[in-house]
Amino acid sequence: MRHGKKFNHLGRTSSHRAAMLSNMASSLILHKRISTTLAKARALRVYVEPLITKSKDDSTHSRRLVFSYLQNKLAVSELFREISVKVASRPGGYTRILKTGNRLGDNADMCMMELVDYNEAMLGSKDESKTKAKATRRKRTLAKKKTTTEAESVESPVVKERKSEKKAKETVNTVTESEQPSEPPDKEQEPKEEKE
Question: What are residue 39's phi and psi, to 5 degrees?
Fold first, then answer.
């Protein structure tokens, strides 16, 4: 019975599956990117990420443990010399799976699996996004709005007086411009204005 066994058997025997994952992990370490099916990539992620974590401790014991899984001296030396230095500050999540569509023959989900720290295009876009985020403008908060309205309310009597003086001057100017000096004012209109 297979109760509680959640890993994917991938339609292979145990020895075949171990050999395939070992070969794929070596290829991923040496080439930094491989193309495979989505199911194999998910199985490989569970297989290779603990090995990368072991490579952070460069001791004979951890080298022998990793070699027992990979069975490839070149891959082990590349992992401990190059990759472990790049991923030293990363607390897991060393691989990325990018879906690439379906395979033409059997319509299997295909993907590219890569080491996160070796994709220069993605690393460059993250740096650009940080600079863009710094350049964006922030919206005014409610606290700032309240302080500006309070400042306006404090200055409002003085400002209102100045505005009323400006309006009075503008109305006087418009009245003088509208009156023509050649025509004398009517005598009848003056007493009516005084009565009102």
Answer: -65, -45
Residue 78: which H helix or E strand, with range?
helix 73-78
Q: CA 146, CA 140: separation in Å to the nearest integer?
A: 10
Alpha carbon distance 57, 55 (integer Å): 5
Q: Report which of 42, 37, 45 is spatially closest to residue 108, judged by C-alpha positions.
A: 37
At 82-105, the pLDDT tens digits run 999 999 999 999 999 999 999 999
Bridge partners of 37, per DSSP, are 110
Counting as low any pLDDT under 70, the low residues of the chain are: 126-160, 171-196
66 burial type by CB count under 10 A (0-12 exposed, 13-18 middle, 19+ buried):
buried
Q: How far is residue 94's CA from residue 73's CA, in Å, rounded to a whole number? A: 21
CA separation for the pair 96, 75 (Å, rounded): 19
Instruction: Look up residue 45 and give its amino acid.
Output: R
Q: How far is CA 121 from CA 28, 41, 116, in A?
A: 18, 21, 11
Report pTM. 0.62
Q: What is the pLDDT of residues 163-185, one digit of tens each?
A: 777 777 776 666 555 555 555 55
